[in-house]
Amino acid sequence: MRRRLPLAPISTARQLPRPAELRRLVQFRRPELGATTRRLSRALTIGDLRRAAARTTPRAVFDYVDGAAEEEITAARNVAAYRRVTFAPDALASVADPDTGVDLLGRRIRLPLVLAPTGYTRMMHHHGEAAVARVAEHVGIPYCLSTVGSTSIGDVRAAAPGADLWFQLFFTADERLNETLVAQAEDAGYSTLLVTVDTAVSGMRLRDVANGLTIPPALTARTVLDMSRRPGWLFHKLTTAGLTFAVLGSAVEGSPTPGEVASLMFDPGTDLAALDWLRRRWPRTLLVKGVTTPDSARRIMERGADGIVVSNHGGRQLDRSAATLDVLPAIRAAVGNRATVLIDGGVLHGQDVVAARALGADAAMIGRAYLYGLMAGGQDGVLRACEILAEEYQRCMQLLGVRRSADLGPRHVASAPAGTSGTAV
């Protein structure tokens, strides 16, 4: 090898920094005075909100949201299914002026997202269901109130008079109670009735048992110690209206006990006849939540439902069941394109919503994702969760070369969970 001449060193010319240049570099942010504002402004992902929620909420309350049934295998599968998705972007496709909106059940919503029903939401934060409904109205997406909600049907409507509100019904053995709840939702202008069908009996949530959680939370030595570690949460609970099953309380005489609520929620005798009654009684949109097989989906649609929610209750009922994203394409194929198909379970990122749309869902429902925000910062936290998901969704859509939500399809998924229509890489 020929010997080369040594490389001459580079000489560095130095000068004193000019004040004008320094001024362009130095940036001082106005200090954020509120702890909640600081906490939410630093949250860039739903995972950040989850960690913030764990720091601001008693462990038993956080675990009630974060946990699932038995060994929590189903809940983990739900999340893992989305992580296995590989996207296939379109090259050189204009994505100027993106449109994230979709048509859902005859309405235009700004994002293919629905805020799912969650029980006893005021336990997580004193703002409760009213805050969730107000955020849904502000963002332009639906919110579904639970039968075991801690704010009444009428009070949620009063909090968000312009919101697209849905009502989730546990069909009970008490026909008069069913009629009263349905009538209240109809009178309050709720657009959609969503009946949950995967609660023949209660799932075993071991975290709740280990934490000694009861609803409402009982004051024992263990729970008082847990609550005292989160003084902000405890202060609000002691100085705001007491926690009750407000939805059920407005439909029955007296305030129902937890045991009475459990007996109402979990009716092992519920069958397709319940759906027949609901279809005759409810004149508006009827959805069925808790479907995980094509055969069940077909039978439900044959009984007159307007759509289904592919759901395993977020892994909170039957453990070791399939991830919802895994079964979504087969269910979509079974019911065709005329039926509305939603999905929940494991949706924690805007990219998850993109994947769900691409593989056959009209929209995704989220529960834990917005509850983490609620626990971290009340109404503002729910809004922050929606902002995060909306930003992630639009960014993913544009990076895929897709300008409109309506244009997402199976071709945008190069590889996907087992049973989907994605093409192997």
Please describe the topology of this protein.
Elements: H1 19-25, H2 35-41, H3 46-56, H4 59-66, H5 73-83, E1 86-87, E2 102-104, E3 107-109, E4 113-115, H6 128-139, E5 143-145, H7 153-159, E6 165-170, H8 175-187, E7 192-196, H9 206-211, H10 221-228, H11 231-239, H12 246-249, H13 258-265, H14 272-281, E8 285-291, H15 294-302, E9 307-310, H16 324-335, E10 340-343, H17 350-358, E11 363-366, H18 368-399, E12 413-415
Parallel strand pairs: 4-11, 5-6, 6-7, 7-8, 8-9, 9-10, 10-11
Antiparallel strand pairs: 1-12, 2-3
Helix pairs in contact: 2-18, 3-18, 6-7, 6-18, 15-16, 17-18
**How confident is the prediction overall: mean pLDDT?**
93
- Based on the structure given, which CATH architecture is correct? Alpha-Beta Barrel
Count of structural domains? 1
What is the terminal separation in angstroms?
Answer: 45 Å
- CATH superfamily, called what? Aldolase class I
Catalogue the unreliable spans: 421-425
What is the molecular shape? globular
Share of residues in strands: 5-15%
- DSSP E strands, number: 12
Strand order of the largest sheet: 4-11-10-9-8-7-6-5
Quick one: biggest sheet?
8 strands, parallel
**What oligomeric state best describes the polypeptide chains here?**
single chain
Rg is 24 Å
